[in-house]
């Protein structure tokens, strides 16, 4: 069993390739977080939203990352973060070709 952290927030940008260039170091640093497995980055420039779907090894590590990242986002002027933590159903995820869990 793994744990999914789903989060999103309003953001004025950047998006697309500009986002990739500006957030490269941030993306690289996430790889060093305790219990982190992977992240799918999400964005919608039209609605000015961004976020991600993360996979962690435990609920505790997901919560620890969420707490730290929420504080970091506040430093960027983003106060309203929508977040949920779920456990995975590995058997059903395998059947539907979900990412490595």
Descriptive tags:
101 residues, Alpha-Beta Plaits, globular, 32% strand, alpha+beta, 37% helix, 4-stranded antiparallel sheet, oxidoreductase, Dimeric_a/b-barrel, 4 strands, monooxygenase
Describe this structure in words.
- By secondary structure, the protein is α+β, with helices and mostly antiparallel strands.
- The chain has a single domain (3-95), classed as Alpha-Beta Plaits (2-Layer Sandwich), CATH 3.30.70.100.
- Helices cover 37% and strands 32% of the residues.
- It contains four helices and four strands.
- The protein has a four-stranded antiparallel beta sheet with strand order 2-3-1-4, covered by helices on one side.
- β2 (36-44) and β3 form a beta hairpin.
- The protein is globular, with a radius of gyration of 14 Å.
- The model has no long low-confidence stretch (mean pLDDT 94).
Quote the CATH topology: Alpha-Beta Plaits
CATH class: Alpha Beta
Number of domains: 1
Multimerization state: single chain
Number of helices: 4
As residue ranges, the low-confidence spans are none
Instruction: Provide the structure class.
Output: alpha+beta
| CATH architectural name | 2-Layer Sandwich
Span between termini = 8 Å
How large is the radius of gyration? 14 Å
Percentage beta strand: 25-35%
Q: Level of helix content?
A: 25-40%
Mean pLDDT reading = 94
List how many beta strands DSSP finds. 4
Side-by-side strand order of the widest sheet? 2-3-1-4
Short description:
This protein has 101 residues and is α+β, with helices and mostly antiparallel strands. The protein is built from four helices and four strands, in the order E-H-H-E-E-H-E-H. Strands 2-3-1-4 form a four-stranded antiparallel beta sheet, with helices on one face.
